[in-house]
Design goal:
By secondary structure, this protein is mainly beta. The protein has one helix at residues 3-17; strands at residues 36-47, 50-58, 68-74, 79-87, 98-106, 109-119, 131-140, 148-153, 162-174, 177-186, 191-198, 205-210, 219-228, 231-239, 255-261, 267-269, 273-274, 282-288, 293-299, 315-316, 318-319, 323-328, 331-336, 344-360, 364-379, 382-387, 390-395, 404-408, 414-419, 423-428, 433-438, 446-461, 465-468. Bound molecules: beta-D-fructofuranose. Beta-D-fructofuranose is lined by residues 39-40, 56, 67, 99-100, 115, 167-168, 221-222, 282-283, 302.
Length: 472
């Protein structure tokens, strides 16, 4: 262990010993940082019977700072253990941040591929000069303690057509070979994904570049390439596509392209489909636990014009709940993993025709069946209403700058709303669309007003259990 790592561990432990002020916005259903700032989920995997969630973590500052890999693990995605930070930025190749990446589980341990970020001080643009985006590999034999890490690739190992922005390795094994996708920005300011292959996880060869015929944004962050029922999908978080319609209303977007052909050779990307139509969703990653594909996203948005008042309380942001990814008619459906249903404690049924007001528990799972395709609802300052073929989400109160977003919905049949203290995940028509939003109502009461015709079931939920990992 080097001196920098020793000090970073000491400083992180001291930061985590602080008691954050009591707040009605501390989350009950969503993973949040112990202290400080959280962004992208990283290294999601199912390793020796446990789910591991790493995340971009800045424990010293609620507005962000140097990034480490924070860590939670769980047997059931309901009770979580807060584990020690797995990756600190303590080597020359990752000194300004252990940036995003992924996990590969092997017989002999967990391998973590990530980006070592280096940003040189001086008069640089940090796009074509003054920056290093290194690809690094770390190994943890038990999934909790780090054994070693090393540099795999530098910017000079990537195709010359790329700027210095090449990051966020996602790695998987297929037919005895390892594959890696990296998000990139070309010198022509187009988003692209670099595909590398390796026989041994350490020596990598560039074998393809995936892109659209016309530039779709200038940078693609956090790529993910996966297959469901024989269909391949390339997921990316593109920057520079704002204002092009529903799902592209945020400063940065996140979604997927269905891929036809062989990703290793000739292939084409279909039409981009946004993953989420709300305000707070970015940089998702998916993994398989052997039976299904699960996605977790960052329930936040970099460089957004809206804010989160919890920053003044010493923490900011959370992850979405784990979402199960399935395919229907070539499109992805996203729904909370079924384990979350075990959080349901009590439920009440209502029918409504006209207007009905319901008092809600703060943590609730709300299932609404809509009879005539039209609905207007208000949940303590957040409203949703159908308007032709659109569903309109408006944060009327306590949105800290959040206003309106829209989702295309042919005909509204049902909604499921997972309501947390300061986060809502709204699943439309069995997961055809999702809208994620943070909002900050004061006080401990929630009221739901429904207008239209249909029925609703409200389930009170108990909170996730999070305990601190006991170091032996
Ligand atoms: C996406 C991202 C990644 C990067 C990480 C740094 O939100 O910008 O591209 O690796 O965050 O925290």
């Amino acid at each position: 262990m080097n001196a920098l790592q020793k000090d970073l561990i000491r400083l992180t432990e001291a930061a985590e010993r602080q008691t954050l002020p009591d707040s009605p916005w501390r989350l009950g259903l969503h993973l949040m940082p112990p202290v400080g700032w959280l962004n992208d989920p990283n290294g999601l995997c199912f390793f020796r019977g446990e789910y591991h969630v790493f995340y971009q973590y800045s424990p010293f500052h609620a507005e962000g700072g140097v990034k480490f890999w924070g860590h939670y693990k769980s047997r059931d995605m309901i009770s979580w253990e807060q584990c020690p930070v797995m990756l600190y930025s303590d080597e020359t190749f990752d000194v300004h941040g252990a940036y995003s990446g992924s996990a590969l589980c092997e017989e002999d341990g967990m391998y973590l591929f990530y980006t070592g970020n280096v940003k040189h001080g001086g008069d640089y643009d940090h796009i074509l000069n003054g920056r290093e985006n290194n690809t690094a590999l770390a190994c943890s034999p038990d999934g909790v303690q780090l054994a070693w890490k090393r540099l795999l690739m530098k910017n000079t190992d990537y195709p010359g057509e790329m700027t210095l922005h090449v990051r966020d390795p996602k790695v998987w094994k297929q037919d005895g070979k390892y594959y890696m996708v990296l998000g990139a920005r070309t010198r022509q300011d187009a988003g692209a994904v670099l595909l590398f292959a390796s026989e041994d996880k350490t020596r990598w060869e560039h074998i393809n570049t995936l892109r659209t015929p016309e530039a779709f944004g200038y940078m693609w962050e956090c790529p993910d390439l996966f297959e469901i029922d024989g269909q391949w999908f390339l997921a990316v978080s593109p920057q520079g596509v704002t204002g092009k319609g529903p799902g592209l209303e945020n400063v940065y977007a996140s979604g997927y392209f269905p891929l036809s052909g062989d990703f290793r050779n000739e292939c084409a990307l279909g039409e981009f489909v946004p993953f989420d139509f709300g305000f707070d969703f970015y940089a998702p990653q998916s993994f398989s636990d052997g039976t299904r594909r699960i996605q977790i996203g960052w329930m936040g948005m970099p460089d957004a014009e809206y804010s989160n008042p919890t920053a003044a309380q010493g923490w900011q942001h959370c992850l979405t709940v784990p979402r199960e990814v399935t395919m229907q008619n070539g499109r992805l459906l996203l729904n909370p993993v079924r384990e979350l249903e075990t959080l349901r404690e009590e439920s009440w049924e209502y029918s409504y025709s006209g207007k009905r007001t319901i008092d809600l528990p703060v943590l609730s799972d709300i299932l609404i069946a809509c009879e005539d395709g039209e609905l207007s609802l208000n949940l303590s300052g957040v409203s949703l209403k159908t308007s032709g073929k659109l569903l309109i989400l408006t944060v009327q109160e306590d949105g800290y700058g959040r206003q309106t977003r829209t989702a295309p919905v042919e005909r509204l049949k049902n909604l499921r709303i997972l309501a947390d203290t300061s986060a809502l995940e709204i699943y439309v028509n069995g997961g055809e669309q999702v809208l994620s939003v943070r909002w900050y109502p004061e006080g401990g009461r929630r009221t739901l007003t429904l207008t239209g015709k249909g029925s609703a079931v409200v389930c009170r939920l108990r909170a996730l259990r999070i305990e601190k990992y006991a170091l032996s």
